[in-house]
Amino acid sequence: MAAQNAICISVSEVKTEQHGPEDEFDYSQRGQWLRAAVLGASDGLVSVASLMMGIGAVKHDVRAMILTGFAGLVAGACSMAIGEFVSVYSQRDVEVAQMKRDNRTAGNNNEEISEKEALPNPIQAAAASAIAFILGAMVPLLAAAFIVDHTVRLGVVVATVSLALVVFGWIGALFGRTPVVKSCFRILVGGWMAMAVTFGLTKWIGSTGL
């Protein structure tokens, strides 16, 4: 009986060792770079596609659409990198200050931050945002670059962007271990709304002769 109990305990320990790291993994640790990457990619995709749809509402020239999208790519990538760097650096300063206050409260004179890996990395977040923005923005640019017919071009941009939004939503849900359908639906509807509003308002303003 004792031998059977020992075997059961050993098997239980083996299972714990095999599945423990996965079960105990804190997926919130991925939040820093995952949030920056997913936000950057979806923002690049939606904002550049919306710009292209807006200019496509009043101009049929493919060159104008591509130049507008490229300008949006460069400006958006720079804006995302700078904004993410400043935001995350501010968050890091707040967390460091709080850790120092906690050390003083606990009577610990050593204020050295020992868990630097747990602090947000502003450079990592800025680079992830910029690179992801560029990758996302390239999707509508490539989709429109080789299509001559204006109507077909707009349709291809919408279809390609929709597919890319679903993929981004699926990737974010996969790495974050969140519901896939909800994530994909949320990002897809948001992208459709942004493109529709930009197209409609630009079309309306263009028709008024402003």
UniProtKB/TrEMBL annotation:
<feature type="transmembrane region" description="Helical">
    <location>
        <begin position="187"/>
        <end position="206"/>
    </location>
</feature>
<comment type="function">
    <text>Vacuolar Fe(2+) uptake transporter.</text>
</comment>
<dbReference type="GO" id="GO:0016020">
    <property type="term" value="C:membrane"/>
</dbReference>
<keyword id="KW-0408">Iron</keyword>
<dbReference type="GO" id="GO:0005774">
    <property type="term" value="C:vacuolar membrane"/>
</dbReference>
<feature type="transmembrane region" description="Helical">
    <location>
        <begin position="64"/>
        <end position="89"/>
    </location>
</feature>
<feature type="transmembrane region" description="Helical">
    <location>
        <begin position="154"/>
        <end position="175"/>
    </location>
</feature>
<protein>
    <recommendedName>
        <fullName>Vacuolar iron transporter</fullName>
    </recommendedName>
</protein>
<dbReference type="GO" id="GO:0140315">
    <property type="term" value="F:iron ion sequestering activity"/>
</dbReference>
<keyword id="KW-0406">Ion transport</keyword>
<feature type="transmembrane region" description="Helical">
    <location>
        <begin position="125"/>
        <end position="148"/>
    </location>
</feature>
<keyword id="KW-0472">Membrane</keyword>
<feature type="transmembrane region" description="Helical">
    <location>
        <begin position="36"/>
        <end position="58"/>
    </location>
</feature>
<dbReference type="InterPro" id="IPR008217">
    <property type="entry name" value="Ccc1_fam"/>
</dbReference>
<dbReference type="Pfam" id="PF01988">
    <property type="entry name" value="VIT1"/>
</dbReference>
<dbReference type="GO" id="GO:0030026">
    <property type="term" value="P:intracellular manganese ion homeostasis"/>
</dbReference>
<keyword id="KW-0812">Transmembrane</keyword>
<dbReference type="GO" id="GO:0005381">
    <property type="term" value="F:iron ion transmembrane transporter activity"/>
</dbReference>
<dbReference type="GO" id="GO:0005384">
    <property type="term" value="F:manganese ion transmembrane transporter activity"/>
</dbReference>
<keyword id="KW-1133">Transmembrane helix</keyword>
<keyword id="KW-0926">Vacuole</keyword>
<keyword id="KW-0813">Transport</keyword>
<keyword id="KW-0410">Iron transport</keyword>
<comment type="similarity">
    <text>Belongs to the CCC1 family.</text>
</comment>
